[in-house]
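note to self: dont lose this again. the chain is below, predicted strucutre after it. 230 aa total, dont forget to put it in the shared folder this time
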Amino acid sequence: MAAKPAIVLVHGFWGGAAHWAKVVPELRRRGFGSLHAVENPLTSLADDAERTRTMVRQIDGPVVLVGHSYGGAVITEAGDLPNVTGLVYVAAFAPDAGESPGQISQERPPAAFENIAPDSDGYLWVKQDKYHESFAQDLPEEEAFVMAVTQKAPLASAFGDTVTAPAWRVKPSWYQVSTGDRMIHPDNERRMAARMDARKVIELDASHASLASQPVAVTDLIEEAATASA
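---
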């Protein structure tokens, strides 16, 4: 039996690597021994993709890249490395060449778009008192409040950074749609999943924070991708 591939988890806007806190132990229980979570600076797509590539280059053997939210744009840009064997999108952006997360959002604005606000230094924040209802309405209020207080804001300019050569055009991909997503319109998620001709698409009755509210189902998809692309 082939060894399980390494899993590299890539977070999105308004959160860090710790957003994978429930998926990581679930993967470990299933025998995945090489687990990694990138902590991206969220300063530009180029910076974040290079940070992700740097981690992937340290790993011997096959790697499955998993991206949540804007992390999907990152794995789309960084997934061209030869040892990347599969891509998993968790309620995530999957831009095409010349396309940005901001452009996708403007075409079909999500329900909570107005709850994102810039500060005086050029960073974008989800308003703290709106984080629960916007990002994680299916999590307990206290858990969502911690996420709101500890959110990692991106530079607003990163939202407009465009993908160059989308890895999903050449690498097998899997996609999880959150039907209750208020940060990326669910129909945008469905459109991106269909466009990439994902090997499997699952829909979860979940918020944008499906990786925290439904970690078992998300891990099921990651495991399926890892098995298929090993």
